[in-house]
From TrEMBL:
One Pfam short name: Metallophos
Protein source organism: Leishmania mexicana (strain MHOM/GT/2001/U1103)
Membrane-crossing residue ranges in chain numbering: none
Taxonomic placement: Eukaryota, Discoba, Euglenozoa, Kinetoplastea, Metakinetoplastina
Molecular function terms from GO: hydrolase activity
Calcineurin-like phosphoesterase domain: residues covered: 87-298
Name of the protein: Calcineurin-like phosphoesterase domain-containing protein
UniProt-listed InterPro entries: Calcineurin-like_PHP, Metallo-depent_PP-like, UPF0046_metallophosphoest
Amino acid sequence: MPAAAAALCEYYGYLPRLVRHTGLLPSTCTSATSSMAPTALHSSLYGADPSPPVRSGEFELPSTYSLRKPLVYDIAELPPKSVSSLRLVIISDTHERHREMSVPNGDVLVHCGDIQEGLNFMRDVKAMLTDFSAWFTDNTLHPHPVKLIIAGNHDKAIAAMPTEDVRRLFAPAVYLCEDSVVVEPANVRFYGSPRSISNSRWSPNTAFQGKKAWKPFMFASARQEDGPAAVSTAPRCSPEQPLRARFEGGTPGGPVDVLVVHQSPDIPRAHHSVEEQPVCTYTQQVAPRRVLLCGHLHGAHGMHRLPVPELVRKSFRVATRDGGGQPEGVVRLDEIPFLPCINAAMMVGRFGQNVLLPPSVVDLEL
């Protein structure tokens, strides 16, 4: 990878926090973009230039909802996040080239699968996975307080191992395989699944694929009401309150905020609707409230706009500060325009000539 590319990252702005809107008076809620109608699947590869940035806290940062393409920064020049936000750094499809990349600092480092190359049969896979774990959990390289990993279809060695052995191999990073984890004290719940769909009938890389891998998400706990309808003081991420991961296991203890899955929505094609893509049906089942993180389809790298899950659309509005002519400090509530989906697959190019793309970054306002 060229040296210049190693120092870059793609910034997807900040996601404004959500506020439960049940019982709000109509005068307190405006709707700039309605999500009642199905939202067309959109890829950042086919978008217009980003909208002007909006104010978030002390810094001029763009809202994720205003972007169609990420802003590319040198890692050293990435704008600082607000203390009341959680910075997610996302990588995926590193395919054994992890030592070639640089990763920006943040609160949560997420790998969305495909650690292995999959086609290199003449090497020690266990040694490679051990090296990846040492690299990923190195606090000098990656001081992120929380690190999360899912597997992908290339990760046959991981699929062949007992899950508890994989957890020990990657510890202190948290390995998720149809599991949830809560990042405390921010109280942000992640759910991770390695499921994906084969994009070629000839591909030998079929780990975590097939009908068994696509069992429906059926957890009543993830659909419970979990908070009052109020604009409350946001928790702060600070050294006085270090972040930590509380593993929940296979049954989420409440609604999912961030869904991490290997499968990505495909890029728009003629006669190819959102509803025809299993990952979109799965997203409606899980109903993540904030963002979907994925990889797998290298050509679909970037941000996709998915329909807001029905449960989320009915229950929440997005809080916008200092906008729409409101007095300074007043919070305006708008309908959630779409569910952001960030495909962080880091490979592009033909087989044998792949180039690594920059890591992805997004801030979650708390």
